[in-house]
Design brief:
alpha+beta; Alpha-Beta Plaits
């Protein structure tokens, strides 16, 4: 089985609304394994690197202001097709377009407060994991006994 890693951040609105446990639970129930997890405050320089691809767009300043407004929970998830699985679990960026049962459809009402960020490709996953985690902060050699019951 080929495993993939991806980055997820529970944004300040998710942390403030006490949704951290609910969000992590949804990923774990999906069969994804947490290999990195930390509560942190995003500095403006880190936020500017993280959202660099959006610099110059009308919503860029709002993204930086929001992600630096309070603590986030940063995590690295691992699993079979992790990037796609996380995308399906999170739902569309705009909660009103998200499929019922997804995090954003069930827990959000506004695109500017959509509680979670996720990597959308292998390239962005690698870049974001490297931005938020040092290699020694990730638990690499861990096999969950239940994996054989989740993945073929």
């Amino acid at each position: 089985m080929t495993l993939e890693r991806t980055f997820v951040a529970i944004k300040p609105d998710g942390v403030e609304r006490n949704l951290t446990g609910e969000i992590i639970k949804r990923f774990e129930k999906r069969g994804l394994k947490v290999v990195g997890l930390k509560l942190m405050v995003v500095t403006p320089p880190l936020a500017e690197k993280h959202y660099g691809e959006h610099k110059g767009k009308a919503f860029y300043d709002g993204l930086v202001k929001h992600i630096t407004s309070g603590p986030i929970v940063a995590m690295v998830l691992e699993g079979k097709n992790a990037i796609a699985a996380v995308g399906q679990t999170v739902g569309s960026t705009n909660p009103v377009d998200a499929t019922p049962g997804t995090i954003r459809a069930d827990l959000c009402a506004d695109i500017g407060r959509n509680v979670v960020h996720r990597s959308d490709s292998p390239t962005s996953a690698k870049r974001e994991i490297d931005l938020f985690f040092a290699p020694e902060e990730l638990v690499s050699n861990w096999t969950k006994a239940v994996d054989r019951w989740v993945f073929e």
